[in-house]
Amino acid sequence: xxxxxxxxxxxxxxxxxxxxxxxxxxxxxxxxxxxxxxxxxxxxxxxxxxxxxxxxxxxxxxxxxxxxxxxxxxxxxxxxxxxxxxxxxxxxxxxxxxxxxxxxxxxxxxxxxxxxxxxxxxxxxxxxxxxxxxxxxxxxxxxxxxxxxxxxxxxxxxxxxxxxxxxxxxxxxxxxxxxxxxxxxxxxxxxxxxxxxxxxxxxxxxxxxxxxxxxxxxxxxxxxxxxxxxxxxxxxxxxxxxxxxxxxxxxxxxxxxxxxxxxxxxxxxxxxxxxxxxxxxxxxxxxxxxxxxxxxxxxxxxxxxxxxxxxxxxxxxxxxxxxxxxxxxxxxxxxxxxxxxxxxxxxxxxxxxxxxxxxxxxxxxxxxxxxxxxxxxxxxxxxxxxx
Length: 387
Known about the structure:
alpha+beta; 10 helices; RNA polymerase II CTD heptapeptide repeat kinase activity; ATP-binding; ATP binding; EC 2.7.11.23
C-alpha cells in the first residue's frame, strides 16, 4: 500500500552525483503567515495567473486538516495524474480579500522555487466554483515526511543513520535551499515535517511555503515565524533584519535529527526557554563571537540570572564514532549562533564533506508502519494513510 501522509548553479557542486528525482511529490499543511511580500513575476507565464477548477479533480483521500483548511490527495479526471491539493478556507469571509492575497502570495513563492528536484513541485491554483475557496495544486509524494521516517527508524532500532545517508540527504536539502535563496525566497519553517521522502526513497523534497517570505523587499521582517525548536537565535531574539541564514540554522537542526533521530533543542517551551536550551549546548555568545547579542533584552535582562558558560558541548553530543570530523564541521557551521559567521547553503555545499555524495536510499522496499504515527507530539495535523 502506498502511504500518502501530510503533517508537512554552483560550479563547485555541479559535478556531484544527483540521485534521480522522485516521480511523485506532495504538499504540506501548515497555515499561511500573517505577513510576507509577493515575489516578482517569473519570465514564463505564471500558473498563478489563471485559476483552474476543483471540478477537474476527483479527491481520493484526506492527507491532513487544520484551521487553515485541508490537504487532500486527488486525481485529475482527464489525465489521471495524482496530485496533492491544499485547500485553504478563509477564516474571515468579510475580510476584504486579505486571505485570498495570502493564498496567492504562497502560490507565487512556491512557484518561484518549485521547478527543482528537491523542492515539491507547484502545479497551479484551483477555485471551488461553489464556495470560491482557493486551493494550491502540488505534486503528490509517495513517501512519508522525514519526521515520520525517523520515528519509524527509532521504533525499529535503526538509529543512528549511516553518515553517508545523512550526507546524501543534507546535500539534497542544501541544494534545494540554495535554489530558494538564489530566488530570494526564505522558507522560514524548515523542519522534518516539512520535508517529504519520495516514494522510491531516493530524494527528499522541501514542502510547505505557508510561512515563506520574499527578500525582494527591504526589512523589517516579521521575526515571529517558524517552529520553535527549529528557529534560529536571531528570530528568537526578535531581530527584524534577518536573512536566508535562518533556513540554514534550521537545516542544521534537521541534520542533527537525521543523525540521532531526536530533536536537538526540544526542551524549549517559549522563546526565552529555547534560547537557554540552545546556549546551554553551544555556549552563550559574547562580544567577540556575536557583538550584536549584548544589545538584546535577553542579554540585558535574562543573562544576569543564568549560569553562563561559553564552551560548546556539541561535539560531545555528536562524537566521531557517530559523525566524522568533516561532517561535524558542516553541522557546527550550520549551528553557529551568529548569522554573520553561519554557513550559507552555497558555502556548506563547497565543504569537502560533500566531495563525494552517494545516492540516497531511505525507504528501500519497506513501508512506514502506521505504528510510526502513534506519537502525535510533533504532528501539526491529523494524518491518514491512503491507498
